[in-house]
Amino acid sequence: MMRKHRLLLILALLVGALSLLAAGCGSDDDESDEGAAGTTEAATTEAEESVSGSIRIAGLWTGGEGDSFKAVLDGYRAKYPDVTVTYQPAGEDLPTILATGVEGGNPPDLASLSSPGIIKDFATRGALQPIDFATEGIKENYSQSFVDLTTFEGKTYGVVFKGANKSTVWYNTKAFEDAGVEPPTTWDEFLEAGETLKASGVTPYSIGAADGWTLTDLFENVYLRTAGPEKYDQLATHEIPWTDPSVKEALGEMAKVFASDSIAGGTSSALQTDFPTSVTQVFTDPPKAAIVMEGDFVGTFINTETKTKVGEGADVFTFPSINDSPPVVVGAGDSIVMFKDTPAARAMIEYLATPEAAELWAKRGGFSSPNKNLDESVYPDETTKKLASELAQAETFRFDLSDLQPKVLNDALFTELANFVKSPADIDGVTGKLEAAAKKAYK
């Protein structure tokens, strides 16, 4: 999630002619994982045995995530032993690498991308191959919201393999217990809990306002619940202006958590606090705040970067309903797309759309699958299972709105929402500046 801002900066490179000298995706980097036979034994059908060749996959996932994806690829190799698979973990550099590969006529066979905007750009330019051959399987395993994310002009160009549930709120369980507070289910209860925590001597909210995406995530959760999914879609495509009353209403609700004495360190400190710090200061002893409002990935960060563990001092609840709003999920996702149409690449797409492929990563942890047919019992703990289930089973899912915006508007969102933290009464000023940026972005 922290790579969001850089990816959007790179998106600008995709519009014009590229003169990069970086190598294409056929890297022999030491991190590449050449296709040895997988360790999982499985009977192969005659059709599976007939698929052969080699495929290259360039991916966002590095380190532990890269290792988990390699375990998924081992499952593919067990089904298709005559296919050699090379995985190139590229991380944040991936959009640049892909753009260079496309311009040089040497893209990988497949790649993972986190932004629907980048996927649409590649598809519009004719760089991506549609995967309509896999649509039936994808629709069987995914809700329509996830199918729509990578469908442009009636053609499907990707399968969302790894998801993120951003409609979550993490809290220090001891701080809640000491204050006599229960996890709230409504926005009014949430605000009341904040006041109770403050009265108990604990600052309610930790906000990492130095990273603009934490503020856009908060706005998106509030807006989807106050304005509804139809307005959310209209705002995402600038069919309604950022000065619309629905935007002002959402900002008015957000302002209720921006009182300086309700934020860890006060307003000035929040504006200098990055995402990692916003998490760690909730789970120190004693805590500097009781609540941090961010996605399911916070759980992994708690377990690896603090002395607290999820379920042992840290817990999570679903982002509260506002004015009786129905269950909705704001999230993100990494999609697999196809640059070269070959039998081996098609087989990989079809494989990654299955619950069996998702299971291989899910049981390792640090993963939420949008695949609604994945057996939830494979998740390693109850918290991951709960959050992944909310993501996969969501009747109403909306992708991170800021990730869908042109760079000029996304930059404005980061800047103006930070200004809003400083001056939460200036709703008209913030919405006016956002609308001015939107007009430039969508002219």
Tell me what portion of residues adopts beta-strand conformation. Answer: 5-15%
Radius of gyration: 22 Å
**Structural domain count:** 2
Shape, please?
A: globular
Task: Using the 3D structure, state the CATH architecture of the largest domain.
Answer: 3-Layer(aba) Sandwich
User: How far apart, in Å, are the first and last alpha carbons?
Assistant: 29 Å
The main β sheet shows up as:
6 strands, mixed
Report the structural category. alpha/beta
* Continuous helix count: 20
Number of strands: 13
CATH class category name of the largest domain: Alpha Beta
Low-confidence stretches: 1-44
Full CATH superfamily name of the largest domain: Periplasmic binding protein-like II
How is the CATH topology of the largest domain named? D-Maltodextrin-Binding Protein, domain 2
Helix content: 40-55%
Rounded average pLDDT:
90
Q: Say what oligomer this is.
A: single chain
